[in-house]
Amino acid sequence: METVLGKWTAVIADDEPLLREELTLMLQQAWPELSIVAYAKNGREAVKLFEQYQPQLCFLDVHMPGLNGIEAARIIGNRAHLVFVTAFDHYALDAFAQGAHDYLVKPVVFTRLAETVTRLKERLSRSQDLPRIDDLLDLLAKAKDGKSPSKGAPQFLRWIRVNIGQTLRMIAVEDIDFFLADDKYVVITWRDEHGKVAEALIRTPLRELLPQLNPTFFSQVHRSTVVNMSAISHVIRGDNETASIHFKGHDKVAPVSRNYLHLFRQM
């Protein structure tokens, strides 16, 4: 059912303001008739705004603090067309293989969004029944926990979003040298496309990041530090069964506590 203004309506839910703004700008180009009636920064707000505005569409970020996009979708259910915005890799995207629901992969590109808009317009024009979503949400929940819906094997974090000024960057995890907990934030140190060392703050706690990192490459070496073992140049032993890690190509140093010194016994 269309609004009295003759427009389809939507709610956008994402905890990153810049991503909400970028998606809005692209939707304005791809679908000028669509009216964005509200923005939410988490799943709880998304559900509240959905109940208030009753839009025909919801764009939901899968990863949001508190109530995430999957949990919000369970509450909204089949009362709206849902488009999931996700940073999952192709294994997790197996959950969408049947094509009954739409998704966008971060960073969102205009051509992919335009394809989604075309499908949504077709479904809305036919006023077809909304597809069941319970099975999809179960698969997405498994993917979010690091399990491939098709293979059951862990799928580790591949990209991390960071804001640098007004710019959103997607950092490949394999390029990160180490993570350092700093009060309420985590500092990541990585090599940019020119090989230069860069730093940024992210809000995800270290205890939540660690299970998402591939243990083949990343190891915790201190209660506040996780390092990419492939980035290590050498390790210098210190007093009181501690050590310091030195990295290839720069002078940053990471501490090793006695509880993790065994990782470097053979070095």
TrEMBL record:
Top-level division of the source organism's lineage: Bacteria
HTH LytTR-type domain span: 160-267
Cross-referenced SUPFAM superfamilies: CheY-like
Keyword set, alphabetical order: DNA-binding, Phosphoprotein
PROSITE patterns the record matches: HTH_LYTTR (PS50930), RESPONSE_REGULATORY (PS50110)
4-aspartylphosphate found at: 61
InterPro entries: CheY-like_superfamily, LytTR_DNA-bd_dom, Sig_transdc_resp-reg_receiver, WalR-like
Pfam families documented for this protein: LytTR (PF04397), Response_reg (PF00072)
Limits of the Response regulatory domain: 9-121
Protein name: Response regulator transcription factor
